[in-house]
Amino acid sequence: MADGKFLYHVLTSLTPNGLWKQIAVPSRLYAKPAPEKPLAGARMGIKDIFRLEGTQLTMMSRAWTELYGPYEESAEYTKKLIELGAVIVGKTKMTSFASPEEPTDQWVDFHCPVNPRGDQYQSPSSSSTGAGISLAGCWKCASTRGLQRALFFAAQLQLYIDEGTTNQFTDRNFDTVGQFGRSLDDLHYIVSNTFDNIHQTFSDFPFKLLYPVEFYPLANEKQQALTEEFISVLEDFLGIKRTPFNLVEEWEKNPPKEAAGVVGAPY
Question: 3-class SS at 16?
Fold first, then answer.
């Protein structure tokens, strides 16, 4: 909940059975989008790697929470969302320090949230696990914010933006702010109102479609069939063919000096 200074506090109220914390979701009846408040009433969650004034950042690490208390200032992009009228309803879980941990066995300090899809025992996957799950299971949320990851695990949509579109302190070669949502219209509306330097015009469509062989084909045949169908549509529309490439091979051809011979993921 935000006071006049946009200072947030943790809601300690529990569900009737005492097992879960409740989420405060204000009514949209009091929020009407306007030019100065285009996101008025939009309910959003933010990944627990972004600062939110008045709340503690966990980074999904018990040691981190012992060292650092609640933050006195929100992250720049979080501030922008609030200033534009977005309602931050909570924070979403992630892997520890947004590292490449796989749910659920590699989650140690904090337990991985449950994927509501299927039999509820499917891996939610990736560092932005909580962001995807919050949309998969919570119809009250319009969007969540996190860092880039593949969304075919949750059958959702995501846009992540190139460097120079917002202030951030992480390495732009590896991280960039992104938005998750259920529709391209919602994503386009949110991104176009919150990111800078994206209103550009292009005279041509992309001429190369990269196909990373480390990620494809997918283990799930139905997912792979849908992926192949989508790629075929892109190929026909753009008049090009996919270009298979291997990340490890490309890395070995031109590795960064800082890697000192270490290949790929270990670096």
Answer: coil
